[in-house]
Amino acid sequence: PCVTLHLSQFMVLLKVPIKNIERELICPICKELFTHPLILPCQHSVCHKCVRELLMLSHDDSFDAGSECSMPGSPRSRVPSPSMERLDRLVRSGGNSVTPRVTAIPCPGCQHDIELGERGISMLFRNFTLENIVERYRQAARAAVAIMCNVCKPPLPPQEATKSCMDCKASYCNECFKLNHPWGTPKAQHEYVGPTTNFRPKVLMCPEHEMEKVNMYCEVCRRPVCHLCKLGGSHANHKVTSMSSAYKILKEKLAKSIHYLISKEDQVRTQISDLDVLIKQTEENGQLSEREAIAHFDRLFETLQERKTEMLRSIDQSRNRRLDQLKGQVEEYQGMLENSGLVGYAQEVLKETDQSCFVQTAKQLHVRIQRATESLRTFHPASNPCFDEFVLDTSKEEMLLKEMCFGGVPDPPLIDLSRSRVYNEATICWRLSDDHIATDHQLLEYRRLAICRDGVDSGSWRTTERVYGASTVVCDLEPDSLYAFRVRSCRSSMYSPYSPEVTFHTPPAPAFGFLFNDKCGFSAERLVLSKRRDSVESQAGMAFLLASERVQTGSYIGLDYIIGDMGITQGRHFWAFRVEAHSYMVKVGVASDTKLLEWFHNPRDTSSPRYDQDSGHDSGSEDACYELSQPFTLLTLGMGKLFIPKASASSVSSSSALVSTAASERVLPMPQRVGVCLDYDAGRVYFYDADTMRCLYERQVECSGTMYPAFGLMGGGRVHLEDFITAKRLTF
Q1: Which of 633, 634, 631 is nearest to 592 (CA)?
Q2: What are phi and psi of 101, to 5 degrees?
Q3: CA–CA separation, 589 vs 688, rounded Å?
Q4: Cα–Cα distance, 519 to 233 (Å, whole number)
Q5: Rounded Cα gap, residues 584 and 154, in angstroms
Q6: Largest CA distance in the chain
Q7: pLDDT, tens only, 405-446
Q8: Which of 31, 40, 501, 709 is deepest in the core (most CB within 10 A)?
């Protein structure tokens, strides 16, 4: 593809007016058009004056480093700047006026900390390409404002400039340009462009070596360098290419990317239409939510109003009943008074002389008098004036209402794959949202995914109990199964959307828990155990130095072995561990106790090539002639690689045999975590990538007696057991 298209040609192809690219030309700090932008190590650009203001604690000796040269009355107009020579000199100088007191700033584009070093901004390149684009943008914005000739002499008025000389750093009309650049003189070779006020240096100079031009490109640091930087500077050990090669490659990439964008214009328009539909749906759904919220509160108000009316009616009925009772009691007591009817009536009855008539009337009257006398002795009001039974305790309801937060649905958490581990139990960790508002709890859901002929058959989701933190444990997972997990947050009865689903493959067998055994064959001189015995490190010690006289070229040093403190006598078991990437050589697998005693107690000559079965050749003959007398069945890892043994077909599964036949495919990248599964009853051992549960290698193993997890280390190396593997043993 053609890679010589200019920016103006790309603008025509993209049909984008230059005025529409303004947002690409705005400094992220001052929010103005870039003024002499500098390129940060993260490839973002910032105005020179903005970087200086970030670095300097005092601006007393600062100067105005930029000139906007915009239209009169423009909000971005600036006072004319000093010459570009002065700016370049100040940028590259180590003077006090631009030497920062701090050397690290946060990039306003990506928020990464940028370490500038002792020389500060003098280590940064100016982005001349961006300066040119900004200048063209300004010219397009002030199309009616012409650039005048700088050398027209009075009394004639200055003419409109037609050219600008980058060497003379001046603008000329046609006549003045011919006079100042006559043919046959060195000035005739000057570089000229269209009328401009932005004069940049012809050659980009190295900020570390001020007298050297940049002519190479460092692929590690992704910046131009000079030959001195490559020979003995900070880029001595970096991979560099020629500037022409970097120019060609980057320009081709940029051209292809732009052509790709052009070809995807219809797709972009379709996505814009989809976004417009989403905007419309968001507006409609927001209005629907408003109506539903109003309806919910209206129903709540109606319910409260009904309860209020019912309670007021009950209070009124109780009050009337009590008043009637108390008023009746008052009337009864008033009858006991001397001038009342009961006493007067009794006095009249006492005047009766006929005995039979008196007895007939006085008996009932005496009962009434006795009842009145008894009420005087034990006085009790007919009704209680207190209305305590109608006092409502609405504190809980008020608290619930106050806890109802309508500040928005919480953002969903994200499951952290690097910290989550899945065995027969799963420890799932997640990162909560950064909206700075605490959530009440989280709910984790999971389901088993079954692979069938028609695809993936998903079971129903199961939900854990409420989790008041950023992790939880899921128990009783089936072995050799695929599980999907998702989590969401709850705040004030409002649930966030679910997090993106993540899948984990459970191991083919239950986890086997053990720690390293420091009793059986452990070499304390060359192996260092952690205090918890969950990690082991190999290091060269004094014994190695003392044996140096016997170590000759071509000789082989033996592995230092260590086994687990728990053994296996039946069933299937799985364990996982992590091998440090810098490890020179580590062998992992299983060992038989019936051969360990003979192995550890028979002395062997460490300087003899027969000490280790592996001669170092890649022919695979040693693997094919695997000695059954050895107690170990091991797989080799080291230097960031995993090596598949070239064993005979009888000891390798059919699928693994196909993989291991090609020598180029025997070396695989070392997994982040390695898993081992021992099937004692079937007499087979399997090696897995513990992150994906992909079986890397399997072979037959003679299971006699008790089998132990085994590790062999040589040179610098370190092995860490997984926390889930060591948790039960550490607790015990």
Answers
A1: 631
A2: -90, -15
A3: 11
A4: 52
A5: 81
A6: 169
A7: 665 677 889 999 888 989 888 899 999 877 667 788 899 999
A8: 709
CA distance 659 to 696: 9
Question: What are the tokens at 162?
Answer: 């037609």
**What tokens does 96 get?**
């006090």
Beta bridge partners of 74: none
Contact 507, 423 (CB under 8 A): yes
List the structure tokens of 539: 């290091």
Whole-angstrom Cα distance, residue 284 to residue 278?
10
Instruction: Please provide residue 168's backbone torsions phi and psi, each rounded to the nearest 5 degrees.
Output: -80, -15
Instruction: Report the DSSP pairing between strands 421-422 and 45-47.
Output: unpaired
CB 32 within 8 A of CB 150: no
CB-count exposure of residue 557 (10 Å: 0-12, 13-18, 19+): middle
H-helix segments, 335-427 = 341-350, 355-377, 395-403
Average pLDDT over residues 560-567: 89
Q: State how far the Cα of 474 lies from the Cα of 430, in Å rounded to an integer.
A: 14
Q: Please report which residue ranges of 142-182 form alpha helices under DSSP H.
A: 174-180
SS3 170: strand
Place of tokens 């980058």: 166
Sequence-separated (6 or more) residues with CB below 8 Å from residue 722: 421, 575, 576, 577, 578, 673, 690
Closest CA to 536 of 713, 690, 707, 722: 713
Which of helix, strand or coil describes residue 499? coil
What are the tokens at 147?
């650039």
Q: How far apart are CA 214 and CA 192, in angstroms?
A: 22
* Phi-psi map region of 492: left, alpha, beta (phi>0 left; psi -120 to 50 alpha): left
Task: Taking the CA atoms of 203, 208, 209 and 210 in sequence, report the sign of the dihedral they define.
Answer: positive
**Which residue did the predictor score with more confidence, 320 or 370?**
320
Instruction: Give CA–CA dist 42/31, Å, rounded.
Output: 19
Strand order in the sheet with 535-538: 527-529, 535-538, 717-721, 572-579, 674-679, 684-689, 694-700
Distance of CA 231 to the CA centre of its chain: 39
Which DSSP state fits 324?
Answer: H
pLDDT(560) > 60 = yes
Q: Tokens 């100016």 map to which residue?
A: 126
For 281-314, how does the pLDDT look when each residue is reduced to its tens digit (9 = 90+)? 989 988 998 898 899 889 989 988 998 898 899 8
Specify whether the CB–CB gap between 688 and 507 falls below 8 A. yes
First vs last Cα of the chain: how many Å apart?
A: 68
Structure tokens at 16: 């984008």
Helix (H), strand (E), coil (C) string for 179-220: HHCCCCCHHHHCCEECCCCCCCCCCCECCCCCCCECCEEECC
Q: How far is CA 725 from CA 450, 566, 573, in A?
A: 26, 11, 11
CA distance 203 to 213: 7
Helix (H, G, I), strand (E, B) or coil at 446: strand
Q: How many residues does the chain have?
A: 732
The 10s digit of each residue's pLDDT in 8-19 is 443 444 444 555
Structure tokens at 217: 């490109």
Are residues 423 and 510 in contact, defined by beta-carbon separation less than 8 angstroms?
A: yes
- Confidence (pLDDT) at 452: 59
